[in-house]
Amino acid sequence: MIAALHIEIIFYCATFGEISAKKWDPVAVTRNNLLGFTHALNAVRSYGKIKKFIYVSSEEVYGKALGKKSELLNSRPENVVSASESGAEAMLSAYFTSYRLPLLVARLSQIVFGGVMNENNLLKKLLEG
């Protein structure tokens, strides 16, 4: 399907968020967020013509880090959703190292995400116009 559409850049945002995760069991969240993500990476690898694959993660992978958060901090997820995001980041790193794919991670903060994707968050407002 990627080849038929001549896709060059992918923004991967397909994860259960915090709100929807409460309605699902941890296995379903992990299956969707990590296994689904791995299938997407494999499709990108098979296609071979993607210029950028950007995984949209969140700052929740840091947990309750003290002080300023940085990409250099170790992840310390505190719930199933952030653990699956951290796992997806690890899988992304493995695919980058193994297959030299053009992969990036964007860890959105609560300023953009609004904490739990409520009606006041910036991303929702931007998407609605």
UniProtKB/TrEMBL annotation:
Cited InterPro entries: Epimerase_deHydtase (IPR001509), NAD(P)-bd_dom_sf (IPR036291)
One of the Pfam families matching this protein, by short name: Epimerase
SUPFAM superfamilies the record matches: NAD(P)-binding Rossmann-fold domains (SSF51735)
Domain called NAD-dependent epimerase/dehydratase: residue spans: 3-111
Family as reported in the entry's similarity comment: Belongs to the NAD(P)-dependent epimerase/dehydratase family.
Identification of the protein by name: NAD(P)-bd_dom domain-containing protein
The species this protein was found in: Enterobius vermicularis (Human pinworm)
